[in-house]
Amino acid sequence: MSDHRSSAPSPLVLLLKVLLILCVLGMLAAGFSPLYQAFMRLTGLGGAARAQTVPASQQVWLRIEESTPGQAWQVRPLQGPQQVKPGQFVQLMVEVRNNQPHFAAMQALPVYLPASAAAYVQKLECFCFAQQLFSPGQVRRFPVVLVIDKQLPATLRQISLAYQIRDQPA
Q: What coarse category fits the chief subcellular location reported for this protein (predicted)?
């Protein structure tokens, strides 16, 4: 007599096979993705054309924007717009005034224009790194030290830096 057992695999075996196939496909996709991206970057296919970077001799205009008068906090640059070379350290000075009639704490938040410039500016020293305490009407001067990345796209010829000031609990 012959044994008529079902030749269908058990659900556990099927599940393990499906998991194995998914793992292999995931590893292949992860391995090919960097290769695919590198190929697209090199060839400029698929809209991933290589951006031209600023030549070493080219300079970029950098300016700190003054805040709107009449607000609780006033930020004023102590220099006008400057031409700077990407890759070089730049130090700018700003003056911050507490226009409120009481002690106050604030935190400055940098805003870059155009917004895409933020990826190419590295601040090394800034009053925005920590909360600042001010007495009523106090004016303080702060250095802002930064470096503009040498990989800055050639289309970015001007960078403006503004600060939004937020009151903080003292």
A: membrane
